[in-house]
Write a structure and sequence with these properties.
The protein is of the alpha+beta class and 112 residues long. It has one domain: STM4215-like (2-Layer Sandwich), CATH 3.30.2000. The chain has two helices and five strands; from the N terminus they run αβββαββ. A five-stranded mixed sheet has the order 1-2-3-5-4, with helices on one face. The radius of gyration is 15 Å and the shape is elongated. It starts with a helix and ends with a strand. The model has no long low-confidence stretch (mean pLDDT 89). This is Phage protein.
């Protein structure tokens, strides 16, 4: 899983948006990603051999509220950079001490 998270982080760097593994304090201005929680299910694995983990991971993008067009471009760039099937949801959020767009990406992947 560590290698998988590292690969995702490296892919997101091409967007030129900083990547964190926990929510930074409010002094850090958006945009930024937070590679967040994940769930794993290894019930597909055999008793012996390679482990197969069906993983769902959440990546949050916090983006300034000033331009919906720029947010949509950032969503597109994120999907291109990661090159994975994912869902996303766009919210307006106040949890970091100011109003921002909060885009929640959910990636489902098999890790072998």
């Amino acid at each position: 899983m560590t290698e998988y998270l590292k690969q995702l982080s490296e892919k997101l760097i091409v967007t030129k948006i900083p990547v964190y593994f926990k929510l930074p304090d409010e002094s850090i201005k958006e945009p930024f990603y937070v590679i967040g929680s994940h769930t794993g299910d290894d019930s597909r694995s055999a008793k012996f051999g390679l482990a197969i983990v069906d993983t769902t991971l959440q990546i949050d993008l916090f983006y300034p509220i000033d331009s919906r067009t720029k947010v949509e471009e950032a969503i597109f760039q994120t999907k291109v950079a990661l090159n994975k099937r994912m869902t996303h949801q766009v919210l307006i959020d106040h949890s970091i001490g100011r109003e921002v767009y909060h885009i929640i990406f959910r990636i489902s992947d098999l890790i072998i």
